[in-house]
Amino acid sequence: LTDRELEVFQLLGQGLGTAAIATRLNVSVKTVEVHRVNIKSKLQLSGLPELLHLAVRWVDSKGLA
What is the pLDDT of residue 40? Predict the structure, then answer.
């Protein structure tokens, strides 16, 4: 993942929604959505629930919650 994709992944794992992530990163909602699609593709995930589950587990394992 790119640095920005990893940042979005971490924020998803911390429970932030798309709009909140966009505000936090000072980007558009569409940009966050594109990052989500790219993350799912790179990690070979089938959908948003799987992405969120993995992101939460990753954040927990890193102690970033």
Answer: 97
